[in-house]
Amino acid sequence: MNPKVYEKIEEYLTAKEVEKGLSPQTIKAYEYDLNLFFRFIGPKPLKAITTEYIRRFLNHLKKDRNYSKPALARKISSLRTFFYFLVSEGYLKKDPTEKISTPKLDKTLPLVLTPKETEKFIKEAQKRNARDYTIIVTFLHTGIRVQELCDIKLTDINYENKTIRIKGKGGKTRIVCISSRALTSIKNYLKTRKNTDSKFLFLSNRDRKLSKREVQRIVKKYILFAGLNPKISCHKLRHTFATHSLQRGMDIRLIQRQLGHQRLSTTEKYTKISDEFLSKEYDKAWEKQT
Q: Which of the following is catalytic: 193, 209, 261, 269?
């Protein structure tokens, strides 16, 4: 890679991290995408990069590496924001991504658990392990992300107001509501913990803060115990919370706040899931009887 290109990539990533408050995982994804592109085109100076080079790169990903539409869309997004940065900072006069269009993505609805499946899932953990049960109930009753769950501290929990202070994406803090059932499970779990000075709620068997990978393994284990769709992940539990909240009549703006979505449009996709679910349940109840 051209040394000057590498220098500008580092500057761009630093700006993204500091000014936008993006997570380390997101920064790594941007870095990977940009490195992939510049390895493909070779050690060319930035001013020599044209729209044609970008089209060749995308065509290579699509035909030679069988990239999906969502994967291609992410690469385009990474390149677009990088070159926009270069133009806005005065390093380039023209943006080579201007004429690059993003592929139209197929609108697929997120996978969620039904209420019956949810209870089956919860009961599998309830009869086996207090900590694991608490993790699953907390996910399903708050809709928080995996890292947010791992980062919960004992001092973040307000038992009186039934809320938890959550540190979300970009270090932004929000207050989320939590059910009495989840709070009771937290209290019961804490009674089973060894004496420890850890400030975090969820600990491993070695009394260390649980990692994302450990939490993901726990969820996957009980999904399999319950005989449910193995594609259900921690993130799908977030989808499940949002869908069930809508079905129970919760205002969509409250769900938006609970999930930590910046845009309401991100939350609105769950209205489609809810409508589809209700349609299926209606068919089960009525159409098969006629």
A: 261
From the list 74, 165, 169, 174, the catalytic residue is 169
Of the residues 141, 238, 239, 244, only one is catalytic, namely 238
Q: In the annotation, is 272 catalytic?
A: no
Among the options 145, 236, 239, 244, which is catalytic?
145
Q: What's the pLDDT tens digit per position in 24-71?
A: 778 888 899 999 999 999 888 889 999 999 999 999 999 999 888 888
Cβ-contact 174, 257 below 8 angstroms? yes
User: Tokens 């600990």 sit at which residue?
Assistant: 203
For the chain, give every domain's residue range. 3-88, 115-285
Active site residue 145: yes
Whether residue 247 has pLDDT greater than 50: yes
**What are the structure tokens assigned to 199, written together?**
């400030």
What token pair was written down for 9? Answer: 């990539």
For the cut 80, the answer to whether the pLDDT of residue 142 exceeds it is yes
Q: Is 235 a catalytic residue?
A: yes
CATH number, span 3-88 = 1.10.150
Query: Is 193 part of the annotated catalytic residue set?
Result: no
According to DSSP, the β-strands at 157-158 and 163-167 are antiparallel
Phi, psi of 164 (to 5 degrees): -130, 135
pLDDT confidence of residue 193: 87
| 261 counts as catalytic | yes
Task: Tell which wins on pLDDT, 137 or 288.
Answer: 137
pLDDT at 290 > cutoff 50 = no
Q: Which listed CATH number (1.20.1300.10, 1.20.1600.10, 1.20.810.10, 1.10.443.10) goes with 115-285?
A: 1.10.443.10
